[in-house]
Amino acid sequence: MITHFAGLKLKTLSIQGVKQFYHGLLHFPITRENEVEIEFQPTPDFSLVFEEVFEPLSPVHIAFEVSYSRFNSTIQQLAEQLPLLQWPDGEVVEWFDSGVNAYFKDGDGNLLEFIAHHDLKEGVLTPNGPYGVLYLREVGLPVEDPVAARLWMKRTLGLTIAKDSEQFAFVIGGTAHAVVVSTKRKWIPIAMYALAPSLDLTYGVTDDRFLDRVRSSLDRRIIVSDNENGLQFRMYGYNIRLKKTSLPKDIASRLNLPDTSEGKGDDMDISDQYLEDGLTALSRGGEVGWFEGHVGGAYLAAYYMQKEHNLPQDVRQGLAANCRHLRSQHEDWFEPYPSELAKPELMDQLVEGLLPNLTNLSTSGHGVTLGVLGLKALRDRPDLLTPSIVRGLLKLMEDAAHEHKLARYYGIEDYTRQSLPELSFNDIPPYQDASDLASRALSELQLVLPDQHYEGKYYFFAGELEHGITHAHALIELERLGYTQLARLGQGNHQRQTILNRLRPQELAHQEIKVSDEASIMDSSYWSGLYEDPHAIKVPYAALALLQYVPQGRRVELERDVCKLLSLMK
Predict the structure, then answer these.
(1) 435, 550 in Cβ contact below 8 A?
(2) Across the chain, how many H-helices and E-strands are there?
(3) Distance between CA 166 and CA 264 in Å, rounded?
(4) Tens digits of residue pLDDT in 258-302
């Protein structure tokens, strides 16, 4: 994933001029200088290079983040060295919802900005130089079609979009905010035309696997170079380089960037990076045990839920917030594996790993539920079909197939017995098709009881119903992916699971969960909460998918029943 702006190369009409400005006035250290180029190091993680040319220049806009607590003294000190640009009302400092900024220009006419945000957590990055520069926050990228450009950046580079309009948007990765604007728009505060400058921009990225993914998605005709200095390509007239650096991948969350003004109003889209991160966490968690695969499974569920459904903004924001919350407690599971080549033949091993879970009901179907999520993700991203990823998924499925809590269902001391005379499969006839399976699985939610202790034991009365929904969805997905025989093989387990889920003490029926007639999976009140249970994401995702298979006339009723489960999420 992209973490920051690691480098920027601009053109200048005078090496001596930029040296006097950036070194003499701004006090940026010089790391390299010759007759045609000079390199400054404003921060340890960012280099600024100027190349002297004999040609007309279009000015660029860049913004440096500085400490909010020191902003007043910083700008006062800066104003003693050079003139600040004025707004139409004569002011030189602008206060906005989340911070403050001031603008000035260098000798080539480049529009510079010092910006500070009160939500930014100080002490994470060390201020550099007398002005306390923390990092390069913004680079302006004027283009003729900003909508197409930002969507390309989102899809190809895994970036997010904020404050988007027809002519303006922030396209964000970590601390890096590309300001993608129309060439018909003017830069504030002096209404300067936003002409497209000549520049080379370097993004810092976390790992080789991300580079591999971007490389595989690029048209080879736009790749300029691909070597130890990174992957360089042309994008809407700009030279862009991706280079692996050591800046922590969670630098944005450490700095509290999701709460800046740019983040508050955006869609909080679940980017393609969630698929890669979810697979990694599913595999690393699986190396520990099947239960630890829940977090990665929730990440994948969030990714596919947004991809497959037209979700309101508050639902998308809730998904992203809950993914961040789950990740913050298990960050080590998201550490990328060392770069490896994908091996297509490993797909057969994954399918074989599902078999013991399809022929044997164990762990409430989690081996199927989590295994199919991993299989689906790898079908979409075969470049991630690596030995490390597959090893963790196989371990997860193996553990899930052989672990049994024998008395997990009420009234049964050992649910693994082949003969259960007190139960009858006649009550659950074979499923005819996906629509039948979906309808009948959702119909089991007519009576939902809360999890609780009863007669000295703790029973997951609601939790097992959740598993019936996610298990049913996994079987339908397995068939949709083309594994029809495997899906039908696993349906017997789901029938057995349904029978066992119905075993509940009659005297607890008065505790049944009820919800309002207007209850919906899309309720804002639900998605405004943060949950410890990954099923808070997995169940809505599975339920939304199942509802697509049921008759239109039953969808409202069955969705309302799903909300009984959601009302119990913690």
Answers:
(1) yes
(2) 18, 20
(3) 19
(4) 533 333 333 456 788 899 999 999 999 999 999 999 999 999 999
Closest by CA to 544, choosing from 312, 376, 361, 326, is 312
Give the count of alpha carbons within 13 A of 183, CB side only.
11
- Report the run of H or E that residue 485 belongs to, with start and end: helix 484-501
Q: Report the distance separating Cα 215 and Cα 329, nearest Å.
A: 31
Alpha carbons within 13 A on the beta-carbon side of 353? 27
CA pair distance 372, 354, nearest whole angstrom = 8
Residue spans of alpha helices (H) in 70-190: 71-79, 146-157
CA atoms lying within 13 Å on the CB side of residue 521: 25
Cβ neighbors of 478 (< 8 A, separation 6 or more) are 354, 368, 372, 375, 486, 487, 490
- Asked if omega into 189 is within 30° of 0 (cis), the reply is yes
- Identify the bridge partners of residue 176 per DSSP, sorted by sequence position: 173
398 torsion bin: left (phi>0), alpha (psi -120 to 50), beta (else): alpha
Structure tokens that stand for 482 in this block: 């083309």
The single-letter DSSP state of residue 408 is: -
State the sign of the Cα–Cα–Cα–Cα dihedral 428, 429, 430, 431.
negative
CA dist., res. 150 & res. 159, Å (int):
9
> Whole-model pTM above 0.70?
no
Tokens 């520990």 appear where? 288
DSSP H or E stretch at residue 244: strand 238-244
Q: Residue 30, SS3?
A: strand
Cβ–Cβ < 8 Å for 561, 516:
no
Provide the H-helix boundaries in 223-365: 251-254, 261-264, 273-288, 294-308, 313-328, 346-358
d(CA 356, CA 120): 50
Which residue type, as a one-letter code, is found at position 62?
A: I
Q: 83, 181, 77: which is closest to 129 by C-alpha?
A: 77
- The token duo for 275 is 């698929």
Task: Tell me the backbone φ, ψ of residue 179, rounded to 5 degrees.
Answer: -95, 95
Burial class (CB in 10 A: 0-12, 13-18, 19+), 414: exposed
Beta-carbon contacts of residue 439 (< 8 Å; ≥ 6 apart): 549, 550, 551, 554, 558
From residue 278, give the alpha-carbon distance in Å to each of 267, 274, 327, 387. 20, 6, 10, 16
Of the chain, the percentage scoring pLDDT greater than 70 comes to 96
Task: Write the DSSP symbol of residue 271.
Answer: -
Q: Compute the C-alpha angle 273/281/272, nearest 5°.
A: 10
pLDDT along the chain (570 residues), means of 10: 95 97 98 96 98 96 96 96 95 92 97 96 94 97 93 88 87 95 94 95 90 85 93 95 90 73 44 92 96 96 94 88 89 90 95 95 96 96 95 97 88 75 68 95 97 94 97 97 96 93 94 95 90 96 96 95 96
Nearest alpha carbon to residue 472 among 391, 543, 380: 543
Which position has the token pair 């679940």? 270
Q: With b meaning 16 or more CB within 10 Å and e meaning fewer, what string describes 131-166?
A: bbbbbbbbbbbbbeebbebbbbbbebbbbbbbbbee
Contact residues for 253 (Cβ-Cβ < 8 A; gap 6+): 324, 328
